[in-house]
Amino acid sequence: MPNAIPSTRFLTLGAALAVLLSGCGGSPASPDRADDTSAGRGALLRHSPTRLLSLDAAGVATQLNKFGTQLLLVAGAPKCGIDFHHVEYNTVGAAGEPTTASAAMLVPTGADPACGGKRPVVLYGHGSSFQRKLNMADITDATNEGAGRIGTPAAMYAAQGYIVIAPNYAGYDTSRLNYHPHHIADQQSKDMIDALGAARTALAGLPHPAGENGKLFITGYSEGGYVAMATHRAMQAAGITVTASAPQSGSYAESLDYEVLGTSGALDDLRAFSLSTQLQLVMQITAWQKAYGNLYTSPSDVYSGTYAGAMETLLPATMALDTLVADNKFPQYFLSQDMPHYTGLTAAQKAYFGTPAQSLMNASYLSRVLADIAAHPCPVTSAVAPLACAPANPMRAAWLKNDLRTWAPSAPMLMCGGNGDPEVSFDHARLTHAYFQAHGSAAQLLDVDSPVTDNDPYARSKNLFAAFRQAVIDSGDDPTTVDNYHGFMANVACEVAARDFFSRF
């Protein structure tokens, strides 16, 4: 299943990076505006924007060093101060229903020529989160998951002179939506576009207005990589100019992870179906149901009756994830012993199956999905027409609808990831790149987990990845885990590659 939560792991790797790489609060900066969703998509809400923090370049360095001094060894010393603004705006939910969302708006400040005048804009998508308390604009609150996530775009972009717009996404922070439209490409691209529109209005209303220089870059990691590509697609369709994009480690070929469940033996060994994977699936099923309304009549159609009633409102959560199972708010097992293939499993495999009352998925519902995969196969690995099929099951139709292999970018694009990623298979990037090539696009593909070649434009990112891997090994840890590979090594190496790519324009 796609997209873990990227983690910040700069604290233990100073030696490897050193060898390799030799304030105050504020108040609302604009007049009150009516908090009225009828004002239309992208409209600013009242008390928005609010400047939460203003730091000079030295203050930025001090704040970012709280994530570990290695972050700035990778990103470079800050040239600029940063004003951190919280922007609230109108957008839509998965079914097009009016709602609200919020974003961080990071504005560079200072005397350095890179920090003033008209600046390039980076629209940044964050990775998946199960916690509703996520505000990318608040870098100082350690209990806020967004604080750790904004550090990288702040260091890589805002501190170097880019204006950064980083949506929290609908369903998080102050959003009125009580679910998150995870991987609903149409909604998430609208959310990003609406955040950009609101931020542009906000920029003009600041005490010291900041202007754009006409360059718009889109990037993001994990879920944010998927969102970045979906947003580029939507902007191209709408005639909005994108200078370049750099989606990173996203599950662009959305159908791939789900269609494979129909292959023989795919559901025999459930050790890989972690709590995180199962929570991600619940978030996704809710998003599909909210968007299309036809996956089920009642949640008990798809989930075990014991837990079904709570699934639609469980995520994003307001409690710690480790308490969900302990408090019996989430099942201990993914699949139940009444799955048709259970009797043919080994004893070790059976240990990961529970009784129907202990399990997440309704066996009869899942069996119908698997039967439809067998009856109506889709050529999801095709480079030419991967979605050329006619599924009869509404859940399959939902995941195929959100597969991003339906267009070809005309503006420059760099797709970045690592071939050993245990969370988001590199096949997503590889197959999407093949589709783009087959349809005339010159999008680039970078595997940071590969040897440096002659005159390699991404040698730095590949060397960083190799140094991170060795440092993890030297620390006695395993570089193949989700946290280390997807959440750290590939994450940072791809962020560096994305900025290097953008610097060419």
TrEMBL record:
Highest taxon of the lineage: Bacteria
Signal peptide limits: 1-29
UniProt GO MF annotations: triacylglycerol lipase activity
Biological process annotations from GO: lipid catabolic process
The entry's keywords: Signal
UniProt xrefs under SUPFAM superfamilies: alpha/beta-Hydrolases
InterPro entries (UniProt xref): AB_hydrolase_fold, Lipase_secreted
Name of the protein: Alpha/beta hydrolase
Taxonomic source organism: Massilia violaceinigra
Taxonomic lineage of the native organism: Bacteria, Pseudomonadati, Pseudomonadota, Betaproteobacteria, Burkholderiales
